[in-house]
Amino acid sequence: MSHPPRAETSAPAREASTPDVAEEPVHPLPPTPLPPERASRVSNLALRLATASIVIPLVLWLIAIGGVPYLLAIVVITVLSLREFYRLIEDKGAHPLVGFGLAAGAALPVVAYLGNEYHATLIMTAVLLGVMVAQVGKAEITEALASISGTFFGVFYVSWLLSHAIVLRQFHEVVSARFGPAAAAQFSPDAGAFYMVFALAALVGCDAGAYFAGRQWGRRKLAPQISPGKTVEGALGGVAGGTLNALLFKGIFDLWWPDLSRGFPWAAALVFAMLLTMVGIIGDLVESLLKRDAQRKDAGALLPGMGGFLDRIDSSLLGIPVMYYLLLSYTYLRLSPA
Questions:
Q1: Are 79 and 281 in contact (CB under 8 A)?
Q2: 128: which residues sit within 8 A by CB, 6+ positions away?
């Protein structure tokens, strides 16, 4: 018996009989996670910017008001940075005279505030004698050389250099004492605030310019044995960024507070800014050398995303004294008869 032909199911019928999965909502894939190194960089940059948004306005405010609050801030920064420096020495196995060093370090900005950098230099002689006498009184003498050298160098490197932030802020008084009231009359009593901001603008701008230029274009290592992350391209970006930032602040002061920036022409500002950025790069490398020797990435961790205080003032430790002595030399040349 023949069976009737089986009815073929049409394509539309087959499609109707099967569940329509295409109508289900499409769920997007989660974003591709950043590689661990890149994610760490993004997080670190966010922390740096957040910390900078708090620190920079506070520093500018302290420079603007000057006086005792400014002095106290310098003393606090000095003591914290010097303690971080002594920890680097301790990581090398030495035992500096921490208490004596911190006391001497805190005294130097006060001496500079009450006198000038010359009096602070005289105190350095007393500090050296005091360190040697204190070392003689210690029971352990096998590390006397490292203890004396480390203690004294810390006071010099951190405290004496940073004490120039006091005399630079008081530049009007310095000129009056060195060259007479008539010479000081050419400067506003608060001209030191402008010079301090100008120096920091060059140094901070150099740091930022080197950071971003190095990440974007860095190829050739600047000092691989000291700091493998620093590049020649980053250094050039730092010089450009720091110079432009300093000139920007020069223009801001010329526009809003011209009395503070008078007597400092644009040509001098350009030369000073470029020199400061170069010195700032050297200062950064010096601190990197110390940390490298101590096998530490950062000198401290008090500033989120930035490390310690010593990590933040490394370029300023050389830059601020250079700004001060350049300014003294420039003032002397301007006042000298032709």
A1: no
A2: 152
**284 within 8 A of 315, measured Cβ to Cβ:** yes
Whether the CB-CB separation of 234 and 222 falls below 8 Å is answered with: yes
From residue 119, give the alpha-carbon distance in Å to each of 79, 108, 150, 164, 218: 19, 9, 22, 12, 44
Sign for the CA dihedral angle at 321, 307, 78, 208 comes to positive
Q: What pLDDT, on a 0 to 100 scale, did the predictor assign at position 73?
A: 98
CA distance 184 to 176: 5
**20 or 246, higher pLDDT:** 246
For the CA atoms of 319, 320, 324, 330, the dihedral, rounded to the nearest 10 degrees, stands at: 40
**pLDDT of amino acid 35:** 53
Q: What H or E segment, with its residue span, contains residue 221?
A: strand 221-223
23 burial class (0-12, 13-18, 19+ CB within 10 angstroms)? exposed
pLDDT for res 117: 81
Average pLDDT score over residue span 33-57:
73
Distance in angstroms (rounded) separating the CA atoms of residues 53 and 303: 12
DSSP state letter for 305: T
The pTM assigned to this predicted structure is 0.85
